[in-house]
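Input record (one chain):
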Amino acid sequence: MRVAHLLGVLLGCATSSLVQGLDNGLRVPPLGWSSWYGFTQNINESMLREMADGMVSSGLHAAGYEHIWIDDGWAIGREPKTGHVIVDPVLFPSGMANLSAYVHSKGLKFGIYTSKGPKTCLGYQPTQPPRPGSCGFEQVDADVYAHEWQVDQVKDDGCGTCPQHEPFAAMRDALNRTGRAIWYAIHSSTTPGSPNATVANMWRTGGDLSSSDFDMWVNRLDLATTPTQAALAGPGAFPNPDFLEVGYSPRNPKGSPRVQSALEQRSMFTMWAALPGPLILSADLRPNAECGGIDSVALQTLTNPEVIAVNQDVAAQPMRPIFRAAGLEVWRKPLADPHSFAVVFFHRNTSSLLDSASSVSVGNALSAGSCQQSLQFDLAVGTTAPGPIRLRTNTTLCVGTIGTCSCCNPSTSPRLGLVPCDKDDKSQLWACPNCTAVGGGIVINTGSATPHDMNSGPVCPNSSGNDILLYPQQRRPNEFFSYDAASGTLRTGGACVGVTPPPRPPSPPPSPPPSPPPRQISVSWTQLGLTRGTPVSVRDLWQRKTLGSFTGEFNAMVDFHEATIYKFSVA
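The corresponding structure, as predicted from the sequence alone:
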């Protein structure tokens, strides 16, 4: 039984008027738009009104999208006497209540942002105002959100600490006491599956998606689909792998080499829909957006009613894998109709980006038998980046034979996903305490350090280029680095990581490798939990076409990086 519901049972009619946390009538994932991924802190009242207009005029609202969610960058302080949060009067001259009223007038819902600590994530940056978080002001903020601004959803970020109480639970209870049904989303900084994941309608399961990249979102999907997360998921409670990267924004304009193909965007939408996860965009919704916005192809993906129906199915049950091998996957998702279920075929076949990296130059030379700290990485993967991305870390490289270094124990080492200029991801800070440097190999490993600001200052000279993804302790070739003193390089399986290499003339861009061919993926009735002779009607939800009746097994040809989705209905 859920904690908030249990409180209602124990207290009886004394709490009958309260919204009961996770049991607040909000049963399916939200569909809408958030400002963060596409625009970060570059928000203002005028553009948010235009986003609301664009959600309606584009047809997205008619398809079910309704949330306009403001992220970090709007608060600049607190009133000394009341503690009320102060809205930036330059960026929001009409005030938040008027903006909320405008959004509601369009038939949409209005969302706001805060963070669990004394400051928001942006508030910890030296170039930003001291933007206040909600620590110690949970009830003050909740009352303003509910009663003065008519807020419909709250995102509570994970930056900072609040030692006087558990801040997410405090905000949940404060929202409950307002009596308004408010969708509550958190970005927990604790281990996924901790109690924090049960106090909200939606909880983040990994770091921010910082680029439109297939490998990155597949990693975030993996974190959201673990058995632990599936056990927590259900009506009104959803693991959140992050925003949908469908369409285009100033951060990832159409035509940029950083942007996924239309097929990859559709695959991401498919997996998010079936998860089920929030379908929250961050593309530019305004008509004739310079970055490309929501073009006709993206709109076709985003408004498919049959795929959206899977996401919004009232049973709200998580998809679970029934087959995973050689980069091919089959997932099954129960539906409210007991005679039907959704099946996803995914030709994933993904590898770490470092497996195909050209080079990564490291600011400090390395040698076997030593540990170098505070390294500066200049990323120059391939030739798509117009300039290097500097990744500053408080880093220690563990230099030693695999298994000799205590920090490299697979049973205790967390996975690392390093993302350029991600402002609050703990994996940006690496640590390898008590390492024994004996030579023979180098393992890069992450520790439990505090967040490090990656969004300000000269460490991020631009926002273009590719990302580094490292996954320690998965026994992949790219995890293990050997040092060649003669050439001054660190080498992985199939990739060379240069250590302070000499300058070299630019080389012409290599021809992109051909994509692997489509693969046939098969699923048997036994794998689906059906009797072999049972006739099943299969409907392709992307084609919106019934393919016929099948018995025994079903086969699908799936392109590289494609996810297809079908509805299976037992006759």
